[in-house]
Amino acid sequence: MKNVAILVPExxxxxxxxxxxxxxxxxxxxxxxxxxxxxxxxxxxxxxTEVRLNDGLFSVHTDITIEKTKQFDLIxxxxxxxxxxxxxxxxxxxxxxxxxxxxxxxxxxxxxIGAFILASTGLLNGKSCSTHWLFAxxxxxxxxxxxxxxxxxxxxxxxxxxxxxxxxxxxxxxxxVEKYTSREIAILASKFFxxxxxxxxxxxxxxxxxxxxxxxxxxxxxxxxxxxxxTEKITVDELSREFGIGRRTLERRFKxxxxxxxxxxxxxxxxxxxxxxxxxxxxTINEVMFDVGYTDNKAFRDVFRKVAGLSPLEYKNKYNxxxxx
Length: 325
Description:
11 strands; Arc Repressor Mutant, subunit A; single chain; 2 domains; Rossmann fold; 7-stranded mixed β-sheet; 325 residues; 47% helix; alpha/beta
């Protein structure tokens, strides 16, 4: 029997508590139907016996509080909501408990931006982690000692797991089911819940909005210039002259502020614009390529795949309603 703790933090996303409980209890039923004993003993664990969520609209009654818990095999940290730093402070008492459980042999999995709580334990320092692509910049700023791989749906290192954004945590749950049971049961679960078990990247779902939440107003102006003139061929030297900042200083400050090099930022702005064009209308891929300032077909396709996780044609087929019809 695997003892599974699903934490119920203050400001938790309710679905990220309910869904893993549903997954593990459903798998128990699959096992019983196959003539096997149930595997998962699932408990909701909180700091209090009742946690009110969504401004008090919902109330979750925990099975046990952390002071009364035993040793678990797996701990699930659900997604949190609201202001991140405030949410971490409200749930600070979970941090040493998670650390102690991990040191005693428990595995720990964070769902979506539950990664911020897992990262706050220090257990991920020097390791990789994934979270919702929308919060990537905030995560990098708060936890520079952790390698954020925000394009991935799942990361796994030394019994520590994380998932990408929003509903992609279902894929981490499937991964855990497969690890603890079998591929056969995981496939059965994927079919029951109608999930794509092969999903590995959240890049096709990400939207690049720039990273302007930093304290360098001059770099914000550079970003805005790039976003206004992305159809042109912009070079680092041109930006250096335009804004009167030495090239090396510009590159250093830009990377520090945005977590992208200047070239990466230009590429991401161009690709985001091309994605929007591919999602609507009837333009060919070559027409879209020229619209965003590329003239080399191979270069455009290579950069597009690197950023979006799909080729331009695959992306268009996936999202363009006219094509889908």
